[in-house]
Write a structure and sequence with these properties.
single chain, 538 residues, alpha+beta, D-Maltodextrin-Binding Protein, domain 2, Dipeptide-binding Protein, domain 3, 2 domains, seven-stranded mixed β-sheet, 15 helices, 26 strands, globular
């Protein structure tokens, strides 16, 4: 067994953009925080009321940013591939890489006053693994086999096979413990009544606005935060403000202190006016349109290749993202470990090529017509999208691009539950996907494994079921050899693009805008704010 203390370098070092705000100072030194003001309530203009605040079940990226304030992980990732104690003070890894044993803090309580013990960690893993839970986060536990309570403050997690991304996942929000007593009390409503161990605790819902208050007993922040004790802020109000322009106006007027999903065209003027604009290049799965290979006409490779050749990613980035992002070329974003730049050659915008491919597939433009036909059937595509951030605008522009080469495109823009229902029924040709992640094994199996076609969150929206691909993905995830992992993930990326299983659009960027009065803004490695260290100037 090898003991891991304050720092552990994973076998796979993750390359993340230099624009990322690291929590720790260089060389691992604890960041020195200047004197900050105590008190005050931070008002956050949030895009939509949280669907759920249950980290073990729900995957909504915006909601996870709220969960980060309520729950603590066993370990924290302070820099790419580097880990710090959290609820766990130290951990050991068995020589075969199958058993991780965590030593837990003995002074932690959940927000409901119940003690945090090894039983809670065991319950977390088993709850996600239980099919009855219907968790969307089954990918977060990966090759989990079993959990064993050694004593009240020691727990072992056994894996079925070695897994290179395990520590990265443990540092995320999904595996943060939820109070077992609260789960028993609230059942399926735990997502509306969250109970964790974090610096902020659930207070109340007022309409669609979520009120969090400072956890007065919090005294177990990781050393990298640079301070101890309860949070400086008295509380946080997460205010539902669906319209981006309204969020921006609320920030300008002082009604709110912080917002996200801004009006991108206004970022320059906001910076000039003195507002803080934070840009975080996201590691993980690019903003893309996975293409359903089981539903005609996208079951035809030539049709899929034509779709890729039709979409002008540069125009999307200019017109919708106002050049605040970079075009994507494959399933992984450029800052992600294992990204293969060779994918840049696989999805070139070329309308003549697109038309030729459709002609070869038998889809012809009738004389004087604008929609291609084959044997009297129109070339129809069904696009589905949930209305969040730039999603609708990007989908509408993409729809127009596809129409210009002869596709008859139906676009359905709904709320997320309705979108998820269409995904489950496989009623689409193109369905959007993006996902922030610190390791490719957190997204590649989820997006392309055959296990994600009918079970879990059904995130394999391509519907590819290929045993050889499953084997390669599993080998890459299990390996602790950095060079081998990069090679295998490179092969997967090229296979995805060679078969046109998805149309990549842009590498995602998270934006946070704050008033000048918000001090000590820190963001985790996946772009989520850490309100524990923030304060409001008076």
């Amino acid at each position: 067994m090898r003991m891991i203390h304050a720092r552990c370098l994973s076998a796979a070092r993750i390359a993340i953009s230099a624009s990322l705000l690291s929590l720790a100072a260089s060389q691992g030194a604890v960041a020195q925080t200047p004197p900050l003001t105590q008190g005050g309530t931070l008002n956050w203009a949030f895009i939509l009321r949280s669907q759920s605040l249950d980290p073990n079940v729900w995957s909504g990226n915006s909601d996870v940013a709220v969960m980060r304030q309520i729950y603590d992980p066993l370990i924290w990732s302070s820099a790419p591939g580097q880990y710090e104690p959290g609820l766990a003070t130290a951990w050991t890894i068995s020589p075969d890489g199958l058993v991780y044993t965590f030593q837990l803090r003995k002074d932690v309580t959940f927000h409901d006053g119940t003690p945090f013990t090894a039983k809670a960690v065991k319950a977390t893993f088993e709850r996600i693994a239980d099919p009855a839970t219907k968790s969307l986060m089954t990918g977060a536990i990966g090759t989990f086999e079993s959990a064993e309570v050694i004593d009240d403050y020691t727990v072992s997690i056994k894996l079925k096979q070695p897994w290179g991304a395990f520590l990265a996942n443990v540092s995320g929000v999904a595996l943060s413990p939820v109070s077992p007593a609260a789960i028993q009390k609230f059942g399926a409503q735990i997502g509306q009544n969250p109970v964790g161990t974090g610096p902020f605790m659930f207070d109340k819902w007022v309409g669609n606005d979520l009120h969090l208050k400072r956890n007065p007993t919090y005294n177990w922040a990781p050393a990298m935060m640079g301070r101890t004790g309860p949070a400086l802020l008295d509380g946080i109000v997460v205010k539902e403000v669906p319209e981006a322009s309204t969020r921006m106006n609320a920030l300008r007027s002082g009604e709110v202190n912080l917002t996200h999903f801004p009006v991108l065209s206004q970022l320059g003027s906001m910076e000039t006016a003195g507002f803080q604009v934070i840009r975080i290049d996201q590691p993980g799965f690019a903003w893309s349109f996975p293409i359903n290979i089981t539903k005609p006409p996208t079951d035809d490779l030539k049709v899929r290749q034509a779709i890729l050749a039709t979409i002008n990613k540069d125009q999307v980035v200019r017109s919708v993202m106002f050049n605040q992002a970079k075009p994507a070329f494959g399933p992984l974003t450029a800052p992600t470990f294992g990204y293969d730049p060779a994918v840049k050659s696989t999805s070139t915008y070329d309308l003549k090529k697109a038309a030729a491919l459709l002609d070869e597939a038998g889809w012809k433009l009738p004389a004087g017509g604008t929609i291609r036909e084959r044997a009297g059937e129109k070339l129809k595509l069904e696009m589905i999208m949930f209305d969040s951030g730039p999603n609708k605008a990007i989908s509408e522009l993409t729809q127009a691009m596809l129409q210009q080469v002869g596709f008859d495109v139906t676009l359905s823009v709904t709320n997320y539950p309705a979108f998820a229902a269409k995904v489950a029924d496989s009623q689409y040709n193109l369905a959007q996907m993006r996902w922030s992640a610190l390791d490719p094994d957190q997204v590649i199996p989820t997006m392309f494994s055959s296990r994600q076609i009918t079970g879990g969150g059904q995130f394999n929206r391509t519907r590819i079921a290929d045993p050889a691909l499953d084997k390669k993905i599993a080998e890459a995830g299990a390996s602790t050899d950095t060079a081998l992992r990069k090679k295998l993930y490179g092969e997967v990326q090229m296979e995805v693009m060679k078969n046109a299983w998805l149309a990549p659009i842009y590498d995602d960027v998270w934006f946070w805008l704050a008033q000048p009065s918000v001090k000590n803004i820190k963001i985790d490695l996946e772009g989520r704010p850490l309100f524990y260290v923030m304060s409001l100037a008076k």
